[in-house]
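Worked example

This section walks through a single chain of length 108. The input is the sequence exactly as stored; nothing has been trimmed or padded.
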Amino acid sequence: MKTQIHDLRKVRMWYEVKELSSNPGNSDSKIAKKLGVDRRTVSRYKKMSEEEFHEFSMKQRVYELVLSPYYPDVLSLLSIDNGLPAAVIEETHTYTRISAASFKVSCG
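Given that input, the structure is written out below as tokens.
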């Protein structure tokens, strides 16, 4: 989830890139070093109009969570007994993961 602070940092960065790039003595590398970003980011921001930047900043990346396949198993373990210690859940999960991995190796 994007935060307003993150969005404001991007907006500020875009404006700083535009301002610094208006000076002919500032190369993309100099600007990048000054702002602490990659020179390709500077180059990309320089090419963007304000409207393009607004569209770009509104996009959100969608990531698949690495642990999402295990969520139902963990949830079921937690719902079985609320007093179940975390160590037991971790032990069971580790055993399941090792069993699944060895199954894939032996069958694959």
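What to look for: The chain has two domains: 4-58, 68-107.
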